[in-house]
Amino acid sequence: MTPLATLVERAGFAPRTPVAVARVVGDAVEESVTGAWPNGQPVTPSDRFYVASLAKQITGAAMALLVRDARIDPDRPVSDTVGGLPQWSTLVTPRQLAHHTGGLPPAGALEAQMTGDWTEALVFEALNDLAELPGSPGAAYRYSNLGYVLLARVIANASEMPFTQFAATQLFEPLGLDGIGFPDDPVGQPQLPLLGASLPLTHGDGGLWSTSRGFALWLQQQNRDTLGIADLVATAGRLNDGTSVDYGWGLGLRQRHGEALLIHGGEWQGAAAKAVRSPALGIAVVGMAAGAEFETLNRLVSAVLEDIA
């Protein structure tokens, strides 16, 4: 296979751009980092990148554990678990939130109006101000960050512990993963100055910081179905009329050469990330970049995937 450093160089990043990439082939995990942070320090393998919406697959896995253990009924109203929301919460289910079919405002609708940090308090203020949904639950696919922040609250209430603690103690620690997690406060992360005036501080839709190796090992464990939840997270959604939705629980569902390819990307100002994996082939790729265009990172991840295949 082509060295990862060579593939990074070919992707076309600007000089000194912080980039981390890792690939999984069976039991082997390989990583490469390059670039320098705004403080001038070179990127190291132990540095965590903000991976934005790659967090959604962690949220989907957390919900799957609770569904498997009969602590969440995915088809009961959200209002059963999260009180105090408007009447629409009696019509939306956790399953619909996970598949982005709950009828909530799409990604970008609230973020575009934001003047401060993206926080859970801001999201729940918006949810409480939402007298009615812009769409009927189950009628259409509408990618919604608000839905995943709400889903994280469902998980927290059902598990009776903070979402960040549940992810740490029920997902990352049992899998023996280091270098990945949801910090309550990202102060001190070298990427932070690149994330703009509004910081991403919610959990569920984002909030995840990881090394490339840490996330690659997460992908490897999911390929192996170590948690025993593959049948939940990788099942396509369905609309009320029976139409299939090519999105599972925090995972985009695609095909490559006849095999399932599970994908997701993530973006924030100053942050880009993408992860792909194929359980049948036992391969995975994750790429992270700071201060680069998503398309440049996407080109790198695609090149690494093709190189493996």
From TrEMBL:
<protein>
    <recommendedName>
        <fullName>Beta-lactamase-related domain-containing protein</fullName>
    </recommendedName>
</protein>
<dbReference type="InterPro" id="IPR001466">
    <property type="entry name" value="Beta-lactam-related"/>
</dbReference>
<dbReference type="Pfam" id="PF00144">
    <property type="entry name" value="Beta-lactamase"/>
</dbReference>
<dbReference type="InterPro" id="IPR012338">
    <property type="entry name" value="Beta-lactam/transpept-like"/>
</dbReference>
<feature type="domain" description="Beta-lactamase-related">
    <location>
        <begin position="19"/>
        <end position="293"/>
    </location>
</feature>
<dbReference type="InterPro" id="IPR050491">
    <property type="entry name" value="AmpC-like"/>
</dbReference>
